[in-house]
Amino acid sequence: MTKTELERLYILNGPNLNRLGKREPEIYGHTTLAEIEAWCRDAAGERPVEFRQTNSEERLIEWVHEAIDEGAAGIIINPAAFTFTSLALLDALKMFQGPIIELHISNIHRREPIYHRSYVSMRATAVLAGMGAEGYEIAVRAMERLIEKGKV
């Protein structure tokens, strides 16, 4: 298959992730979102990648709708704070027929109790948390396996 024949992988990032490298480096490290994007594109190989970040819940939901309409191969999503607040995002993700990996740079379960309940986990095929920025590359490789196996 050529690059144009492969279904796209959507990697969606929620609020404040544009501040990676500057925001709370003791939790999130010094790696920037641009560096993470480059790692993801390398890990995806020939598979086309839509890598996006927004501080808007509405825009994040619209991108999930786009992934549905475009027949995306899978979604890797770091919804950031929307993880714990957005039923609307959960409802959008429930419409997606492919695999979804929920991703968090920090281990949300080692943090304050407010970070322990994820709405996104109710739909996610898998959850990856606490691997730092490197978790993105791990998630891309894991997504390829999920796609190959047809797992949702």
TrEMBL record:
Alphabetical list of HAMAP family matching this protein: AroQ
**Do you know which PROSITE patterns this protein is assigned to?**
DEHYDROQUINASE_II
User: What organism is recorded for this protein?
Assistant: Ferirhizobium litorale
Q: Which family does it belong to?
A: Belongs to the type-II 3-dehydroquinase family.
Kindly identify the residues recorded as the active site. Answer: 28 (proton acceptor), 104 (proton donor)
Q: Spell out the protein name for this chain.
A: 3-dehydroquinate dehydratase
Cite a single GO BP annotation.
Answer: quinate catabolic process
Could you tell me what this protein does? Catalyzes a trans-dehydration via an enolate intermediate.
The organism's taxonomy opens as: Bacteria, Pseudomonadati, Pseudomonadota, Alphaproteobacteria, Hyphomicrobiales
